[in-house]
Amino acid sequence: MFHIPGKPIFRFLIFILFLFSVGFSIAQEQSIQNGVLDLRKVDIKNKPVALNGNWGFYWNELLQPNEIKNAPEYFTYFPERWDTKVLNGQKLSVKGFATYTLKVLLDPNKQKDLSIVLPDTYCSFELFINGNLFAVAGKPGKTKETTIEKWIEQVVTLPVSDTISLVLQVANFRHSKGGPYKPIVIGNTTQLTAEKAAEDGFDLLLAGAILMGGLFFIGLFYFGKHDRVILYFSLFCIAYSYRIVGSDNYVLHSLFLSYPWIIGVHLEYLSLFVSVIFFMFYTKYLFPEETNKWLIRIEAIMAGILCLLVILFPPSVFTQLLNPFLIVMFMVIAHAFYIYFKAYFNKKLGAKYALLSTGILLIIFILINLKYFNVIQPPRFVLFFGYISFFFCQSLILSHRFAFTLKEAKKQAEMGLKAKNDFLSTMSHEIRTPLNSILGMTNIMLMEKPSEEQKEQLNVLLFSAKNLLSIVNDILDFNKIEAGKIGFESIEMNLKTIAENLVAGFGTLAKEKGIELKLILDNNVNIKVLGDPTRTSQIIGNLIHNAIKFTKRGHVALRIGVLSRDELRLRLLIEIEDTGIGIAQEKQQLIFEQFTQADNSTSRNFGGTGLGLAISKKLLALQGAELKLKSEPDKGSTFYFEISYPILHSQILAKEEVIQEFPAEESRPLKGIYVLLVEDNEVNVLVAKTFLSKWGAAIDIAQNGQEAIDLFDEEKHTIVLMDMHMPVMDGYQATRILRERGAKTPIIALTASLPRDIEERIKNMGINDIVVKPFIPSELFKLILHYTGIHPQ
């Protein structure tokens, strides 16, 4: 069976055609004999009557009612333009004036409350009823100078009488068409007024909706990705919205009676021609691959010429362009159909809606032209529904396109984020691995009793390496916070010890700058709490380091005070005060942004990435705290925050606690321990081997996972230090194989990746713990003690 592609689309088109066909409404016509219409037995109240027929006709005469004494010599069919007529064997000129007359016989007892609908004419008229002037549109005159053109449609109430004598004066000197071209309708006043109001309402509602849609898409274009499809459709909407109220019923002219006819007629034609150009370019950019570019250019040139003629010439010239325009318009629609059919068969996004909307548009234009030539009179709601359907389908196209663009942008953003994360992960590994060697070898050389000059140089090297590590950590931490992957531990935490260690650690840096670093602790900060000691140290450490960096003289003070305390929680106020350069009020929020400092010169004078404060602020925010600032330029700054922690009960601290010290070389605390070191970097092997040897451990070395599997002896090896990234076989696979073989020996991962980056991967693999490169010797020592169960003397 033959298959019709897009069958639902064609069904919808057929439905619209059916709707249009059943909606046609043509007023009834009655026979007019010698300029007289007898309606005394006609039901006008329920169905209006079009006053179409042979009216009395006086060419080149503008007669007042009292000047008409005898029956007309000539009769002509009304409404028909006089430039299509022949009188006495001679075709009438388009420029001229005439008087039309008609007598309507009514039954005043039955036919009451009557009105007539007066449409526009080419191009002005005055209507007299029973000798009195009842309605005007402009001012008909016998010359171009005495004629005032006006296009409006109006409802005029008729006097109660058995005879209605109509005298209609019409004049035209500026248009390419002359005389009446729309029927005058008589009917019930309420019905005609309601229909007129409904038609005007439809026009205003439709024009307003199309205009607002155009403005909305203009905004979408301006604030979006500057998609030309959206731009040209919005311009098409704006241009065509004028057509709705500036032509046909001329609602705009009726609302603004002083609206100049000459401007209106130029805009009426110009908006039509410009709309076609915008629609062509909209189609071109919507489906560029299916568009015939040369044909589009030809159509654009033709439409552009029509626009220039409207701009440069008077109405008597450019109003003759309707037929050429119809050729261009139907060429454009046919081309659009061709483009949309190709796009539909090519399965392009939104093609079926484009095809449907173009079919609707074609039907609308056919109906408008049939109405223009008085073939049919479709009700306004039919055209309204057609326009709404067309613009709705076009909006669906743009909505699909916009949603697709957002989806693609989201996909690209996710790919970019993944690429960034992959890059940072790689960067972490590649930078941390050589840093491990630098820091390890520096520590080893410092342990070899260097001279004072060498010790000073090694300390500078050690400081620079730690500074570089701090920058790498800041960048990675900030990336994890932005990605929402940061996590917090809830373990035992000693705030007093953290504060003392931080002050001791930064003491050297403060001493080098000649400033005092003070610790002021509340006596009640003597209990252990649950929290994340690493993140807490990072937050306070960032603030202390920042304060020292921007302080040239005076002091930096860390204050920890108790705001409140109950059985469950301890609420603290933590302040970092300095006597540094201070920050101006208007720049105090700026410094919390990433990669930002208060002044561009700041980074040159003091260094740093500008990430420390941003990281501290975000880490605190994730814990429900807010980092605040008090500062005055040249007087100093105080960064402070309030935070609460759950209290760890029965853990009041003694005044002095035993802290595991770094082992002395002579003690050889790991004597008897056999370590399997799995590492492919020779310098890292040298660093780890040096420390382990000094601590008394025996070492076997494997350069990849396969060698580790071959060398491993569970009875011999007490602990395994396993690098995760190696050639031949990485640490993940090697660990998995060892555990599958039943190995119970503790395995500590040596990795340049951050713990939270790999925790999912190692969760079920059997790795006992992680040491992050560059490792701190004392941290490695404590882990070995913990997993081997050794208690050094």
Overall domain count: 4
The largest sheet, given as strand count, sense and whether it forms a barrel, is: 8 strands, mixed
Low-confidence stretches: 1-7, 12-26, 594-609, 651-661
Our estimate of the beta-strand percent is: 15-25%
How many strands?
A: 27
Structural class: alpha+beta
Nearest-angstrom radius of gyration? Answer: 45 Å
Distance between the termini: 94 Å
Q: Could you tell me the mean pLDDT?
A: 81
Q: What tags apply to this protein structure?
A:
single chain; 793 residues; alpha+beta; Jelly Rolls; Heat Shock Protein 90; 8-stranded mixed beta sheet; 7-stranded mixed beta sheet; 20 helices; 19% strand
Protein model, in words:
- This protein is α+β, with helices and mostly antiparallel strands and 793 residues long.
- It folds into 4 domains: 31-188, Jelly Rolls (Sandwich); 195-407; 495-652, Histidine kinase-like ATPase, C-terminal domain (Heat Shock Protein 90), CATH 3.30.565.10; 665-788, Response regulator (Rossmann fold).
- 47% of the residues lie in helices and 19% in strands.
- The chain has 20 helices and 27 strands.
- The strands form 5 sheets. Strands 2, 3, 5, 6, 9, 11, 12 and 14 form an 8-stranded mixed β-sheet that branches. Strands 16, 17, 18, 19, 20, 21 and 22 form a 7-stranded mixed β-sheet that branches. A 5-stranded mixed β-sheet has the order 1-4-15-10-13.
- Helix 2 (189-223) packs antiparallel against helix 3 and helix 12 (495-513) runs parallel beside helix 13.
- The longest helix has 68 residues, at 380-447.
- 35% of the residues are buried.
- The model is unreliable at 1-7, 12-26, 594-609 and 651-661 (pLDDT under 50).
